[in-house]
Predict the 3D structure of the following.
Amino acid sequence: MTNREQWFHNHFNQIYSYILLLVNDAHTAEDLTQETFLKAIRHEQTFKGQSSVKTWLFRIAYTTTISYFRKKQPFTHFLDTALLRSKHDLSPEETTLLNAQQKEFYAALQRLKPSYQQVIVLRKIQEFSILETATILAWTEGKVKMSLSRALVAFKKELEKGGFTNETLFRR
C-alpha cells in the first residue's frame, strides 16, 4: 500500500466526520473530504514531517472547508441544507441517530462563532492535542487553550438554552 493509500485508509473517516460536523450535509462533506485528499496528493512534496500526517491532513481539511464557506454565502448554505433535509427521506437508522438531543447538540454547536466550533470539534470531538490543534488552526498553543475555555463556556450556555441540564449534559 502506498503512502497515499495509507493516508486515505487511516484518516478518511475522521476527516469526513470533522467536515460533516462543520457543514451539516453529507454530500458536501464527501465532496470536501475528496477535495482534501486530492490537495494532499497534489502537495505531498510540501509535507515536511514537522507534524503528524493526520495533523497535516486536518489542516488541509480545515482550509478547504473554510474556503468553501467563504465562497458560499452562509444564508444560502443554510437554505440549501434545509431544502436537502426536507427532500431526503431518512432511514429508520438515521432517524434514530438524529434524536432531539443530538439535533440540539449540533444546533448549539452551530450557534457558536466559527473559531469556537473549530476548537471544540478538534480538541473535544476529534481529540487532537493542543499542539496539533494549534498547528491545524495556525494559532498559538495559548490561543487554543484560551479559546477552548471560552468556547466550552459559550457551548454550555447554548445547550442550556436548548433545554439541556447538568444531568443531561453529563449522562453517559
Q: What stands out?
A: The CA atoms of residues 16 and 33 lie 6 Å apart. Residues 73-87, 167-172 have pLDDT under 50 and may be disordered. The radius of gyration is 17 Å.
